[in-house]
């Protein structure tokens, strides 16, 4: 199986695209920073603000479950898929070509 060009994928996929797929609804916003309920752990409160996303940097952090990373890592954590499979799944859901690496 060919590899995925993760650098290319990280440059093309935005945090907003992943948050839309996860139906994330921020409860507060300050500039490029959004706060809300973490899509990774089962929070029952709709008003909880443990999840923080910096849209400009494309990074997230949950102050409760301590997960953090970029959009691809968020998708992998949310879908519970290994990173390689999560990259393929994310491209399919967004209707994009997978940036394959055919030779090393």
Q: CATH topology, which one?
A: DNA Primase, Chain A
Q: Beta-strand percentage?
A: 15-25%
Q: What is the tally of beta strands?
A: 7
Mean pLDDT: 92
The end-to-end span amounts to 12 Å
Low-confidence stretches: none
Q: Order of strands side by side in the largest beta sheet?
A: 2-3-4-5-6
Report the principal-axis shape: elongated
Briefly note the structural class of the backbone.
Answer: alpha+beta
- Give the helix proportion (percent range): 25-40%
Encode the helix/strand succession as letters: EHHEEEEEHHE
CATH class: Alpha Beta
CATH superfamily: Zinc finger, CHC2-typedomain
The CATH level-2 architecture is identified as: Alpha-Beta Complex
- Counting H and I runs of at least 4 residues, what is the number of helices? 4
Structural features, described:
The chain is of the alpha+beta class and 104 residues long. The protein has a single domain (3-101), classed as Alpha-Beta Complex (DNA Primase, Chain A), CATH 3.90.580. 34% of the residues lie in helices and 20% in strands. The protein is built from four helices and seven strands, in the order βααβββββααβ. The protein has helices at 6-12, 15-21, 71-79, 83-94, and strands at 3-4, 28-30, 33-36, 51-54, 59-62, 68-69, 100-101. It has a five-stranded antiparallel sheet, with helices on one face. The chain has a two-stranded antiparallel ribbon with strand order 1-7. Strand 4 (51-54) and strand 5 form a beta hairpin. Helix 2 (15-21) runs parallel beside helix 3 (71-79) and helix 3 (71-79) crosses helix 4. The longest helix is centred in the C-terminal third of the chain and has 12 residues, at 83-94. The chain is elongated, with a radius of gyration of 14 Å. The protein starts with a strand and ends with a strand. The mean pLDDT is 92.
């Amino acid at each position: 199986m060919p590899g995925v060009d993760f650098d290319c994928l990280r440059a093309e996929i935005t945090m907003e695209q992943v948050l839309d797929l996860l139906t994330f609804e921020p409860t507060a916003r300050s500039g490029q920073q959004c706060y809300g309920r973490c899509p990774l752990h089962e929070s029952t409160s709709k008003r909880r603000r443990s999840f923080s996303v910096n849209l400009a940097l494309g990074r997230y952090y949950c102050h409760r479950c301590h997960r953090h990373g970029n959009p691809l890592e968020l998708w992998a954590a949310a879908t519970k898929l290994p990173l390689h499979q999560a990259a393929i799944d994310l491209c399919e859901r967004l209707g994009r070509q997978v940036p394959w690496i055919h030779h090393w």
